[in-house]
Amino acid sequence: MTQQLILDVLPYPPPTLDNFVSGDNAAAVDALRHCEPGRAIYLWGPDGAGRSHLLKALAGLPDAYYFGPDGLPSELKSIAAADSQPYRLIAIDDVQRLSPDGQAALFSLYNRWRELASAPAAFALIVAGDRAPMAMPLREDLRTRLGWDLVFRLQMLSDADRAQALRRQASDRGLQLSPEVINWVLTHYARDMSHLSALVDALDRYSLEKHRAITLPLLKELLASGRPDNESDTL
What are the Hda lid domain coordinates in residue numbering (predicted)? Predict the structure, then answer.
């Protein structure tokens, strides 16, 4: 099997609410599942807590829109100014990285959301950042709007939760990770799920390439090559 074919085998499943391991964040996930047009939710927590996973999962729903840190403020401005709203759910990620123009566009979008909250054209607004609303490095009138409806702080997963997540992600790819492999990863590797997910993906590819079962020696060999961190940018 060529290297390119190995990279194309078993693409990692896209983020969904079902494959998010909630841990202590069950209330936030439940609120997202039942978020109706006219409601707003602000999620905050450290990098690795799952903010982007949750927002991208919602973006996979019908009539949903995801705006990431590389998005153009003009896109948000156009949505906020539209006479007829094209989306039923709008997810805005990493608001702490918004430019002044982006902040102005989100401010307008919040005002539009409130204006339409009880109208047939209402939409749900889901926003995420790395800190509490009033601690955000944003313009004051936008900080207050982040707390207009529901606010949830996302907690990092415990080791038990991360072990469950690793087993689930491996199972989704038809893999089995031994307790020895899982325990070593949780003790010696990065703790956030984005890096752990990238590791499972890279380990699957490396196992296929080498035609070897996934064992602790194979895992250490992979990590020594430096490939999981290099490949994680492509996930």
Answer: 159-223
Which among 106, 129, 157, 124 is positioned nearest to 52, based on CA atoms? 129
CA distance 155 to 50: 9
> Which fold is adopted by the domain 23-153?
Rossmann fold (3.40.50)
Tell if the pTM clears 0.90, that is, is over it: no
Is residue 224 within 8 Å of 186, Cβ to Cβ?
Answer: no
Which value, to the nearest 10 degrees, does the dihedral of the CA atoms of residues 139, 144, 149, 155 take?
A: 70
> Which stretches of 34-87 are DSSP H helices?
51-59, 73-81
Starting at the edge strand found earlier in the chain, the sheet holding 124-129 runs 64-67, 89-92, 124-129, 40-44, 150-153
Q: Which residues contact residue 55 at a Cβ distance below 8 angstroms, ignoring those fewer than 6 apart?
A: 43, 66, 91, 92, 93, 126, 128
Q: Which CATH class is domain 3-7+158-232?
A: mainly alpha
Q: Where are the domains of the chain?
A: 3-7+158-232, 23-153
Per-residue pLDDT of the chain (235 residues), as tens digits, is 344 433 344 455 688 998 888 889 999 999 999 999 999 999 999 988 899 999 999 999 999 999 998 889 999 999 999 888 889 999 999 999 999 999 999 999 999 999 999 999 999 999 999 999 999 999 999 999 999 999 999 998 888 888 988 888 888 888 889 999 999 998 888 777 777 888 888 888 899 999 999 999 999 998 888 665 544 333 3
What is the biggest distance separating any 2 CA atoms in the chain, rounded to whole angstroms?
60
